[in-house]
Prior knowledge:
This protein has helices at residues 3-17, 22-29, 33-45, 73-89, 92-108, 111-123, 134-148, 168-171, 247-255, 284-288, 300-316; strands at residues 50-53, 57-60, 150-156, 174-186, 189-196, 201-206, 210-219, 239-245, 261-267, 270-277, 294-298. It is an alpha+beta fold. The chain folds into four domains: 3-60, Orthogonal Bundle (Arc Repressor Mutant, subunit A), CATH 1.10.10.10; 73-123; 134-219, SH3 type barrels; 239-316, Alpha-Beta Plaits.
Amino acid sequence: MNRTDRLLAIVLELQSQGWQRAEDLAARFEITKRTVYRDMQALSEAGVPVVSVPGQGYRLAEGYFLPPLAFTPDEAVMLLLGADFVAQNFDAQYRAAAQAAARKIEAALPEQRRAAVRDLQRAIRFIAGEAEGPQQQWLPTLRRAILERRTVRFQYHARGGEAAPPSPAQAAGRPRQADPYGLAHVSGAWYLVAHDHLRRALRHFRLDRIESLAVLDKSFERPAGFLLDLAQPTGQLPLVVRALFRPAAARWVREERSFFAVSEEPRPDGLLVTFRVRHERDLLQWLLGWGAQVRVLEPASVRELIAREAAALLENHRPV
């Protein structure tokens, strides 16, 4: 990064992050503290109102903003595609905000650049299934509960995630109370990440399995430093499952990777995948979908569960 680009990047960093120490800026831009001091002097001489306080670092003076930024065609396309994604997958409130933002971005582009962006938009499409029904219905309520740190109550329909098949009462939905920490959109579905009072642990809840959602007059404190990351499984996953997939299926297993997969090992006889789950039934539907392309190596309890399900399938499909 040349010095001009670095000076602009430092201003953007100060504008977005507030107080920054010299050592923080040095680490962020991979320069020395002495270079940071010189850059701050250069910015001040150029008329940028940099405030310096010993022990706190640097920040921009209140009320200072950069002039509107100029976007390259690639940058503008990425922003517009992002707005398109939001418009397709959020509720009406955020859809309108995304569409308004897209119009402002387009309006800020010079005519020649706007034409280049439209050419790229015609050549690149981002298509996602729109969130419908309950997913859209619950999003505004959950956003409010997350912002206000309010506990929510709802009926939840779990899909075979217990040690045994759900009873009729469980299948009809069990009442839950949870402290909502965040929302995530994964493979066309919205998930609520929340501390489940019933399980006393962090859990994921699919919004389209939620009914009768209500915000309670009960507040909570989100854990300090909480970071929403669906790549990290929630709660304890004590059960290790290992399954061997035939070579012909290895490519497709990687493409449709299970959320519970923790490692993969190519072998001459196929792909060995290791999973961590709470219960044997957590993987049942996913493994059954691979038919004869998969063989569970361990534990025996999962092999026996699959054998029972296979026997039930056979019974259901005997000739009448």
